[in-house]
Amino acid sequence: MRVSQKIHIDREPADVFKLIGDLPQHPEFLVGTVWKPVSNQTHGVGARYRVLMKIGSVQVGGIVEVVRWEDDALIEWSAVQGVHQTIRWLLSPTDDGGTELQIEVDYDIGGGFIGGLVERIAARTIARNLWASLMAARRLVEQDV
User: Fold this and answer.
1) Terminal CA-to-CA distance of the chain, rounded, Å?
2) Which of 83, 77, 45 is nearest to 64 (CA)?
3) What is the pLDDT of residues 61-110, one digit of tens each?
């Protein structure tokens, strides 16, 4: 299942990427998520983090590794342990000099019909958390620059 949210930020992509690319700072704006480094490398391709999202009373997720890093444009993680998940931050310049910031989460709980039902139920919580995270990121970027 894919859940995606996007927001406009009144700053250039390079300014937005300063926040998004500072992976250890993610706990300051990721809502409903536990985010902890699990490797000595904390930036760029190869950095690994434990990512757990609270869905109801349960935390689900696992270990993810950064697999793509394009300055001012994209950061992508994929699961190496736990729930299959891919997380992408996408930054696109807008005509007004701002940035469209999008976050996408693809996940697969497995388990056939029951797993699909759980995925659809979780999608609402994930969408709310992603939107709240984007709002928090926008506040940090627009006040910091």
Assistant:
1) 35
2) 77
3) 889 999 999 999 999 999 999 878 899 999 999 999 999 999 998 877 66
CA atoms within 13 A on the CB side of 65: 8
Which sign, positive or negative, has the C-alpha torsion 7, 88, 46, 73? negative
Question: What pLDDT digit, counting tens, does each position of 120-130 carry?
Answer: 777 888 899 99
Distance set, CA 115 to CA 38, 42, 71, 137 (Å): 28, 32, 36, 31
Closest CA to 60 of 37, 85, 92, 29: 85
- Residue 138 near residue 4, CB atoms below 8 Å: no
| Order of strands across the sheet that contains 74-82 | 2-9, 99-108, 84-93, 74-82, 58-70, 48-55, 33-37
In this prediction, residue 60 carries a pLDDT of 78
**Could you tell me the fold of the domain covering 2-144?**
Alpha-D-Glucose-1,6-Bisphosphate; Chain A, domain 4 (3.30.530)
Q: What is the pTM of this model?
A: 0.89
Domains of the chain, by residue range, sit at 2-144
